[in-house]
């Protein structure tokens, strides 16, 4: 069982983006679509591609900290503030699975690191391009759009 899209957006994605000072409708729509396409909004939280809602691999997680967040201590401190006090030290990658706000912040940092301008929130193909560039380079744009339609806007999903 996954998370309802409206609740994920309202209680996890939006507050995390606001906390980071990065909130806008496009960022929120993109992260919701990424969660839908990567894990079906939490239907499965771990597989060979990575951990959590956004399926972030351990190597990418470590590289983000070492190569991106390390250059901005203030931002790194903000992101680290979302992680569990003791659990992060013992198993930082597990935070991607069990801590939704931390995982959302890391997913956003991966997107931000790409420095690609965000399309409008309703430009689903534009959002799909960023998903593919950031999370799934071998993915097809329709994989993103179909997952988003299925999990975020089920009334738009094509009948089987």
List the helices and strands and how they pair.
Layout: H1 5-20, H2 25-39, E1 46-47, E2 50-51, H3 58-68, H4 73-80, H5 87-90, H6 95-98, H7 100-114, H8 124-134, H9 141-151
Antiparallel strand pairs: 1-2
Tell me what the structure shows.
By secondary structure, the protein is mostly helical. It has one domain. Helices cover 59% and strands 2% of the residues. It contains nine helices and two strands, in the order ααββααααααα. A two-stranded antiparallel ribbon has the order 1-2. A hairpin with a 2-residue loop joins strand 1 and strand 2. The longest helix is centred in the N-terminal third of the chain and has 16 residues. The protein is globular. The chain starts with a helix and ends in a 9-residue tail after the last helix. The mean pLDDT is 90.
């Amino acid at each position: 069982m996954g998370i309802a899209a409206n609740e994920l957006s309202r209680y996890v994605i939006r507050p995390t983006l606001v906390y980071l000072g990065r909130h806008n409708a496009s960022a929120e729509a993109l992260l919701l679509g990424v969660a839908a396409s990567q894990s079906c909004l939490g239907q499965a939280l771990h597989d060979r591609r990575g951990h959590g809602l956004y399926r972030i691999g351990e190597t990418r997680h470590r590289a983000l900290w070492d190569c991106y967040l390390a250059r901005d201590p203030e931002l790194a401190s903000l992101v680290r503030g979302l992680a569990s006090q003791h659990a992060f030290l013992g198993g930082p990658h597990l935070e991607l699975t069990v801590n939704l706000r931390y995982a959302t912040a890391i997913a956003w940092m991966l997107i931000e690191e790409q420095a690609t301008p965000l399309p409008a929130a309703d430009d689903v193909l534009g959002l799909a391009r960023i998903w593919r560039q950031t999370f799934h380079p071998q993915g097809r744009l329709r994989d993103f759009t179909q997952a988003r339609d299925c999990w975020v806007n089920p009334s738009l999903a094509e009948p089987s």
